[in-house]
Amino acid sequence: xxxxxxxxxxxxxxxxxxxxxxxxxxxxxxxxxxxxxxxxxxxxxxxxxxxxxxxxxxxxxxxxxxxxxxxxxxxxxxxxxxxxxxxxxxxxxxxxxxxxxxxxxxxxxxxxxxxxxxxxxxxxxxxxxxxxxxxxxxxxxxxxxxxxxxxxxxxxxxxxxxxxxxxxxxxxxxxxxxxxxxxxxxxxxxxxxxxxxxxxxxxxxxxxxxxxxxxxxxxxxxxxxxxxxxxxxxxxxxxxxxxxxxxxxxxxxxxxxxxxxxxxxxxxxxxxxxxxxxxxxxxxxxxxxxxxxxxxxxxxxxxxxxxxxxxxxxxxxxxxxxxxxxxxxxxxxxxxxxxxxxxxxxxxxxxxxxxxxxxxxxxxxxxxxx
Amino acid sequence: xxxxxxxxxxxxxxxxxxxxxxxxxxxxxxxxxxxxxxxxxxxxxxxxxxxxxxxxxxxxxxxxxxxxxxxxxxxxxxxxxxxxxxxxxxxxxxxxxxxxxxxxxxxxxxxxxxxxxxxxxxxxxxxxxxxxxxxxxxxxxxxxxxxxxxxxxxxxxxxxxxxxxxxxxxxxxxxxxxxxxxxxxxxxxxxxxxxxxxxxxxxxxxxxxxxxxxxxxxxxxxxxxxxxxxxxxxxxxxxxxxxxxxxxxxxxxxxxxxxxxxxxxxxxxxxxxxxxxxxxxxxxxxxxxxxxxxxxxxxxxxxxxxxxxxxxxxxxxxxxxxxxxxxxxxxxxxxxxxxxxxxxxxxxxxxxxxxxxxxxxxxxxxxxxx
Lengths: 370, 370
Description:
Number of strands of chain A: 21
Helix content of chain A: 25-40%
CATH class of the largest domain in chain A: Alpha Beta
Oligomer: homodimer
């Protein structure tokens, strides 16, 4: 239920279905509680204070962000337990130190050297900053591999030698689950990650404060039914889901909570194509291989109540800067006129939100941090 | 020459080299003057009032934009001859009518029906709106094909029957030059487009005011040495150029006028990869096949004077939301530390500018319309 006045939409507009969104939040929060893991949702997907409050209403107290500026933005709204799940950017050391005074802040490190430099910069008298070591469990983007014991020890020792750094544990992002196309694959990737993190915990867990193992990606957090040995999950995308997640199998299309409303501006009868105002600057250029072709979004119809199920005989064929080209069935072609609206479910909701910078929620425009 | 204090850069920052930018503008303006075509640069690439003034200083008086809101933005800064090169969006009819009072405004139509609806909405007493018919000369995105004579006649008649619509001519965008990889291909595509437009002009040019034929894409406008029969060019990207244009052959890398300065946040010795703060939300996900692989940007070093020539043994291998992963040579790997900056020349400068929303020009942050 979206409650929109379709007539008021003049340009591409990102609609949020609050009910679906809240249902997604509740579902993941309940799952985390049931499985006994801390839920630290990644707020980079929505970047919205308003939606952050929907999480708070479900009892969520800890969050993940992907930049220092995003941490600041949410701290302003009362969030005081924040992990910046992005490698330590030394150029923002002052901002990190400042934020550590205002919140229980955790940073991520992938190497000892930058942490040593940060540690020298930070006075021992200042509030401690939590430190997670990023472990590469196969995604091969950032992080130490579990056998790099010497570097891991150096990081832990840097923390121990500083009163203002607190070693918290190991964190991984199994982003390679995005290449999976069924639950079994997601499970295999995740279980191997859990095993690798578990072996590090067994090796380094010595003090009275147990180390935390933190994992987080929407496919794993959606599909797995246990997180043995894991202490914390950090999914983000599930708040909106998107076409990519339906292709992976994380969700049904009915759980996608954002839809770009796009004015129809042109039609081509020969090619059975409809061109909408809504392109790469609104959706991003993210695409996914779906059944037998690369697509840039699912297509749906709009009403004052919200959007329809995807029209599976239509798809977004291409996007350029402001144009989206939609292949449609003959029936849809005949039913749509210039000036009508069509809905596009984005392939990647995190990037579409980032591109748009604001949402229409129950008829009211809500700014986000972008 | 950029004149930046590198120490002041804390986050991904889009640097503009004003001298290169002004040189690109002057070069295209002089070329248009020499070849006897009106120069109506597309401002969607930079979307900046400040850079718009650099064009004005070269004597440019007419511009192209890709949205009604962009037309408004530039009209506020004194631009009063504007073509909105995007199919008529009926949902913005009121804004278009309002703008037609403030500027000589041209709109684009691809079908008769929306223009008829617009015409009924517009009072005959209001200032006239110029109308271009978009012709599809092979790009197959929007536009009528030249043989759709009946529809073209309908559009022209709609204009003739209205005191407030003025039929101006035919416009095409040969965006398929972006798939070309040498000058000959670009020439072949363009000449066919010119021939098709020319035949339409011959057919429909009857009145005392000659019809205008308008073309515009950076590859053609950069590489062609004549525009026989064409009245107007509308390139946009050339103001910055980018990696894509060097791959097509429109420019040398030395003429790229924007560079994303990115803090180095992680290194991987095994894979010889450097991870920077600078990803899809800064550069977009645009990629290009270069030599033997898909890349997301060229890499360069930075100094207070600006950026180096591209390091051709390095490239941006992938981008995720905030991360850029850069493959580097052994030498570069050893010379770069976390906390340093690296420069990335974007694959598509229009989208990178749109993602960033502002520029660092000679040490001062300049907001844009995004």
